[in-house]
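re: ur question from earlier - yeah i can do the single chain one, its not a big deal. heres the input i used so u can compare w yours
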Amino acid sequence: MTPVRLTLSLFSLFFFLTGCADESQVRQKTFYAFGTQINITLSGVSEQTANGVIDELNTTFDEVNSHWHAWQPSVLTNINAAIAQQKPIAITPETAKVITLAKQLAQQSHHLFNPAAGHLFALWGFHQDDWFQPRPPPKKQAIKHWLDSKPTMDAIHIQAGYLSSDNHMVKLGFGGFAKGYAIEQVIAVLTQYGIHHALVDIGGDLKTIGQRGERPWSVGIRHPRQDGLLATLTTNHNESVFTSGDYERFFTYQQQRYPHILDPNTGYPARQTQSVTVLHPDPSVADAAATALFVAGEQWPKIAVAMGIESVLVVTSKGQIEVSPALLPRLRLTDQAPAPIIRSLGTS
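and the output i got, formated as tokens:
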């Protein structure tokens, strides 16, 4: 593992903040869905086209929300009700496709990404609108009961258009997956409108297509412990950048912070990592992998290989930066970032 110092040039910072394209052809739209801010940046389109596509995207987000919301009435809550009653439920081919992919990713991650852990997230209070309110953590016995039930995606079965489960403690929740799915739906709408240069950002997780004018898109990675950026990186056509961090969703009780990224092997918040950033063409894969690698802690390189991930940036619980070799040439760390350690994938 070799420490390498990277610096962010003034030019790179200026490009990230302002861009170098013809700004008259860059349209930026901001709106809210899923309880978070969504930023759509379009390059090389007219204002009329931009306004038209945003209207349709509002409908797209409403559809995704009504389908995959984990605790408000949705298709997903209907599926979970059927699982709890040990009854099969009819699902659409699209729903089957999404859940099958989630199952594959869970298995590749050794179930560190575990969409079947909805009951555990509910125990911790993260499956409710006021998840940020102070409260005591769950009782140890309640967590032990969940661990003993071993709910994983292996217990999900899809056959002939029906979903069933042989474990009534399975409760599906796609918090570590839904953003990626939503972004893919947005990209599909943009393509239908003939838009081929865009950046879609949902709460800091994003995908880019094409480029911004004559240059690649440049995106920022938030510092997990300070205001401002830890780094920037350039993205090519059809690439996604997803970050899981312990600063995103958490509650505080008796001066102890409890982040929302839970380790399904212990039932408690994962503590070995401050943030993980993943670069990958598929936003759903990037979303799931960022969660799994965060939970993996020191073992993240092995899980990255298992999930087919090559480009990773990790900030450990001690603030050390670890970078995979594939990501290093495209990364520019700010002056407030420590020298990174290069971690070869497949090693611990």
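Confidence is low (pLDDT under 50) at residues 1-21. not sure if urs matches, ping me
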